[in-house]
Amino acid sequence: MNRLLLAAAAVLALTTASHAAVITTFGVNPNSAAGAFSNDPNGPGVGGAFTDFYTFDLIGGPQFVTIASASNTFATGGITGPFGIQNFAAAIFETVGVPGGGDDILVFGPQFASLDSSGLSQSLNGSGLLNAGSYFLQVQGTAGDQAGYGGNFSVAAVPGPIVGAGLPGLLGMLGFGGFQFWRRRKAA
């Protein structure tokens, strides 16, 4: 397990430096419409290693972040064919300075894609909680010369505490229940 994590970290380190590009900015607290993404890594007819960044900012407290799906589809040839992406993975980093500058903090991932049951595509997904700050989604791999991917990213505010919930609410309900019991007993 530790070797797998070290290998994943090495893949991230190697691909971050070469062919890294900010593809788009999702904006502040992006919803699923603002978080739709797709790319033809390296351009049409050009294959090779790529690292794509999608930047976003979170404000207003903790946010629930979801990569609903990131998919690479290939009609023929599988992952190693012209439409496939080998080592297709995603991770989320907290931005420190410039995205991909080497001082960013890994907060989720990397999550590697798995082959779908049809054998004609691969996909990855994930979710988690992030605090307010600046982040980027990193999508990477080694693309065939006709490969592409697409996906959806969104955030949702973590709901605040419900009024009356927790220990104060429980004590209040017990107190009210005790008062009702006392009232009924007195009436009898």
What's the topology here?
Blueprint: H1 2-17, E1 20-28, E2 36-39, E3 48-58, E4 63-73, E5 85-94, E6 105-112, E7 114-115, E8 121-130, E9 133-143, E10 149-157, H2 166-187
Parallel strand pairs: 1-3
Antiparallel strand pairs: 2-10, 3-9, 4-8, 4-10, 5-6, 5-9, 7-8
Descriptive keywords:
188 residues, alpha+beta, Jelly Rolls, 2 domains, 2 helices, 10 strands, disordered N terminus, disordered C terminus
Provide a quick synopsis of the model.
With 188 residues, the protein is of the alpha+beta class. It is built from two helices and ten strands, in the order H-E-E-E-E-E-E-E-E-E-E-H. It has two domains: 156 residues, Jelly Rolls; 26 residues.
Description:
The chain has 188 residues and is of the alpha+beta class. It has 2 domains: 2-157, Jelly Rolls (Sandwich); 163-188. Helices cover 20% and strands 45% of the residues. It contains 2 helices and 10 strands; from the N terminus they run αββββββββββα. A 5-stranded mixed beta sheet has the order 1-3-9-5-6. Strands 2-10-4-8-7 form a 5-stranded antiparallel beta sheet, with no helix packed on it.
The count of strands amounts to 10
Average per-residue pLDDT, rounded, comes to 78
- Which class do the helix and strand fractions yield? alpha+beta
What is the makeup of the main sheet? Answer: 5 strands, mixed
Percentage of residues assigned to helices: 10-25%
> Count the helices. How many?
2
